[in-house]
Write a structure and sequence with these properties.
5 helices, mainly alpha
């Protein structure tokens, strides 16, 4: 929420779950350089993949987060929420064109990723 981005991107739900289970979240200060260090440390500890390194109970969380309440409120004012937009593209093609379409979509996906655009594919058979 602080960065305005999800910590992980993956092609499948399984891959996304694997990332959440096996990797620590990326450092939010990489995206928000003026993020207060106390908030950064809180986020990094809460996002550890190893449960033993995370907060162990709500009391620990409250002890850490209460002093940050004023800073968190001011951060929310500094980073307005951007409205995301969605565009749908329907591609109708013949089976013989599948290979060429796959190459085209790989190129399109790579360029979209450079721009921070997320692509979701739904395969609608035999319309």
């Amino acid at each position: 929420m602080v960065t305005g981005e999800k910590p992980f991107r993956a092609e499948t739900v399984k891959d996304l779950l694997d990332l959440h289970l096996n990797q620590d979240i990326p450092d939010p200060a990489d995206r928000v350089p003026d993020l207060p260090d106390e908030l950064r440390r809180f986020i990094m500890k809460a996002g550890q993949s190893n449960p033993g390194r995370r907060y162990q109970n709500v009391g620990e969380v409250l002890e850490e987060i209460r002093p940050l309440a004023t800073e968190i409120r001011s951060i929310g004012r500094r980073f307005p929420h951007e409205k995301q937009k969605m565009t749908n593209i329907l591609l109708m093609y013949m089976d013989r064109d599948q290979q060429a379409l796959t190459r085209l979509m790989e190129e399109f996906s790579a360029k979209a990723a450079e721009l921070g655009i997320v692509i979701k594919v739904s395969d609608l058979h035999d319309l």
